[in-house]
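Appendix B, example 12.
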Amino acid sequence: MIVQPVLVVAAALFSLGIYGILVRRNAVMVLLSIELILNAVNINFIMFDTMLADTMMQGQIFTIFIITIAAAEVGIGLAIVLMLFRNRQTANINEFDLMKW
């Protein structure tokens, strides 16, 4: 299997995720950008697991753990964003100064 195209796609997803975190100010879009980064990592794990022909399937196991953590992160993150939106009437990250002294 050719490794380079898969790694280029994973690098593109990772770059889009970083760009989304740095540029976007909407909290939901930042959560989606984090999901893109985690999916890029999952692609790398699966690709290297396939390339190395690992009998213990460690890349696939790590991918399942990352998918589980990503689902929990989305659930908790969206709950926090909804509560902040309910209190502040905005989803803009720059206006969330609740924890500042």
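The mean pLDDT is 90. The longest helix spans residues 58-88.
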